[in-house]
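Work Package 3 (structural annotation) set out to generate three-dimensional models for the target panel prioritized at the project kickoff. During this period the team completed the workflow that converts sequence records into discrete structure tokens, so that structures can be stored uniformly alongside our sequence database. As a representative example, we reproduce one entry of 297 residues exactly as it appears in the project archive.
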Amino acid sequence: MCNVVSPKNFFPEVKGNLTKIVWAHAVNSKAELDRALSSNDIMMLEADVVLGKLNETDNSSIAEIPIMAHPPENLSDLSLEDFLNTTIHKTGIKKGIKLDFKTIQAFEKSKPILTKLRENFKFPVFINADILPGPVNATATPVNAKDFLKGAVETIPECTLSVGWTTRYGKEYNIIEGRYTPEQIKNMTDTLAENQIKQSVTYPIRAGLAANDIETVKALLNNTSSDNVTLTIWSSEGDHVDAAQLSKLIKDVGVEKIYLDVPEDLKKKLDFSSASTLVSAAILIAGMMLALFSINM
């Protein structure tokens, strides 16, 4: 039996505030995995999955397998299977994982591995891919949406589906303006509805783009068919981000609905101290009820 749990339940110390969850990026080597697993601060491990070969053996005649690497790299000292087994069997740790699949081929070859190890997952598991083209006129090829959603639901239905858009933004392209359009938002919600997605969903949205149209991003949450939907706000180093507008987005949506995966310098600029959480709201309501009970005594 698979025991995948939600981050909110797995990390009760954040008290429902998902922005407090700390992420490690590009855990794509044995050294990075050991470093992340040994850290007292890291809570979620994000790693990239591609098809490639292990670089520690003579494997010129061996077929490509799912490995941990970021394109264009196709060599690694860490396979997906070893990444999962190491995380599963590391004693005394409390980490969740996010697997970012860069191609549908890498995902298809990973499904048997996920199926084999699924019953050992006793922590949060996010399965991620960019399944639709997005801002700003992004040209990268998305992962096939229908095949990815169908495969994820059949292989590990307890996971959180993390589905987003390809983007073309930031210093790499010298682009500092852009936003998610209503059409791109509708394409995503329609795609999930057409594939009858009901499990937990998080949308990874790029901070600099999301901050430029708060209402459109909020519509993404309001129109999703999933029973449990969140945002994962992310940013690359050097992205232009309106910190005040991003703070407003977080306040409007609520910290119980937002994972925050941005560079530390941007995080320090954000102010969402007044953002609500379900926990604080529940405490407030309980306090009001207690006060009313005392008055009526």
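The radius of gyration is 20 Å.
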